[in-house]
Specification:
The chain has five helices and no strands. The chain is an all-alpha fold and about 60 residues long. The protein is globular.
Length: about 60
């Protein structure tokens, strides 16, 4: 699967390797109960903006 900044949290969590990359960056959304209600709409770009993470760096790792 190819990822971009519009990939949703739901799509990311379906891929075990992508989930490991997100865990590496300690993304709070992974353990947040509210994220369960936003999974279909919450994009990688949204999460990175919210937590000051470098979306380009994460995308590079996700698409390796």
């Amino acid at each position: 699967m190819s990822f971009d900044e519009d990939t949703t949290l739901e799509e990311l969590l379906e891929d075990e390797e992508a989930k490991e990359v997100l865990e590496k960056y300690e993304l709070p959304c992974l353990g947040c109960p509210m994220a369960q209600f936003e999974m279909q709409d919450l994009t990688l770009k949204d999460m990175c903006n919210r937590y000051n993470l470098d979306v380009d760096k994460i995308l590079e790792e996700l698409n390796e």
